[in-house]
């Protein structure tokens, strides 16, 4: 299998209508009948955020904190999802601070809403980390499915919810990349015991997810082999229709090849949008 190459961050790909429609069909086929409603609601929120000086949204970090506090000092099995903005460093240099702040707030708001299947762990600059608990072996496939559906929602919301509005307000299009993997994670408490202490999660799957997410082309999802192995046959077949491809990734811990799988919005031409 071909190794994923480092992409040119200056290239932002057009999203074809054909792939957009296919992903919407997959959402409906997977019984996410609220897909079109979610897009309309996203557009309405983005318009409101652009018109109002005060932009606030509920982060839902409290529910994550409550979940993790119940497992302090233990290991839990989670599906991890990283999502971040493509070319944000370039935007931070070129855009006025007000526009940059608006973009970050809209991105965080809409990715948080799209993550209605799991927990938001934290916001880190232009990235968001979410997770999906795996309660048992029997629940593995369901947790993975939730993570993948969340990632697909994020891609669709950015393309059809956020970008359709931003272009009317003279903002650049946004593009994201997403990494997903799973495994055993340690729940760690920092500082004094109590409600004000900081809770975080650590583990090898966190590192792998961050690394494979950084390899993703714009508007693509990369999935680690540990997670892919948890897909049922139906899920694999659906993702293959979206162009799912396997690639070799070198595991820095073992030196072994680790399979990762990618799919998402394809483009026929490497033409930068917004020119």
Commentary on this structure:
This protein is α+β, with helices and mostly antiparallel strands and 275 residues long. The chain has a single domain (17-264), classed as Nucleotide cyclase, GGDEF domain (Alpha-Beta Plaits), CATH 3.30.70. The chain is built from nine helices and eight strands. Strands 1, 2, 3, 4, 5, 6, 7 and 8 form an eight-stranded mixed β-sheet that branches. Strand 4 and strand 5 form a beta hairpin. It is globular, with a radius of gyration of 18 Å. Residues 1-16 and 267-275 have low confidence and may be disordered.
Number of domains: 1
Low-confidence stretches: 1-16, 267-275
Tell me what portion of residues adopts beta-strand conformation: 15-25%
SSE series: HHHEHHEEHEEHEHHEE
CA-to-CA gap between the ends?
35 Å
The CATH architecture assignment turns out to be 2-Layer Sandwich
Counting helices, strands and paired strands, the structural category is: alpha+beta
Please tell me how large the radius of gyration is.
18 Å
The overall pLDDT, averaged over residues, is 82
CATH topology: Alpha-Beta Plaits
The count of β-strands is: 8
Number of helices: 9
CATH top level assignment: Alpha Beta
Helix share of residues? 40-55%
Biggest beta sheet attributes: 8 strands, mixed
CATH H level: which superfamily? Nucleotide cyclase, GGDEF domain
| Shape, per Cα inertia axes | globular
């Amino acid at each position: 299998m071909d190794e994923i190459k480092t992409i040119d961050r200056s290239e932002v790909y057009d999203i074809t209508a054909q792939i957009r429609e296919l992903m919407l069909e997959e959402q409906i086929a997977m019984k996410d009948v609220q897909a079109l409603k979610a897009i309309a609601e996203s557009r309405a929120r983005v318009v409101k955020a652009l018109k109002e000086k005060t932009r606030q949204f509920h982060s839902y970090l409290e529910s994550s904190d409550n979940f993790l506090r119940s497992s302090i000092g233990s290991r839990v099995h989670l599906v991890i999802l990283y999502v971040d903005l493509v070319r944000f460093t370039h935007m931070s240099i070129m855009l006025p601070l007000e526009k940059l702040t608006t973009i970050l707030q809209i991105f965080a708001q809409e990715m948080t809403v799209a993550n209605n299947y799991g927990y938001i762990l934290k916001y880190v600059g232009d990235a968001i980390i979410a997770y999906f608990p795996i309660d048992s072996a029997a629940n593995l496939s369901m947790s993975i499915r939730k993570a993948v559906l969340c990632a697909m929602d994020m891609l669709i919301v950015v393309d059809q919810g956020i970008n359709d509005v931003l272009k009317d307000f003279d903002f650049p299009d946004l593009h994201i990349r997403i990494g997903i993997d799973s495994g055993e994670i340690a729940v760690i408490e920092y500082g004094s015991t109590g409600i004000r202490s900081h809770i975080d999660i650590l583990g090898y799957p966190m590192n792998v997810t961050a690394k494979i997410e950084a390899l993703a082309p714009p508007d693509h999802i990369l999935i680690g082999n540990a997670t892919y192995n948890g897909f049922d046959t139906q899920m694999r077949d659906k993702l293959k229709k979206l162009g799912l491809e396997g690639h070799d990734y070198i595991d820095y811990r073992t030196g072994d090849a680790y399979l990762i799988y990618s799919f998402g919005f394809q483009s026929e031409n490497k033409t930068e949008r917004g020119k």
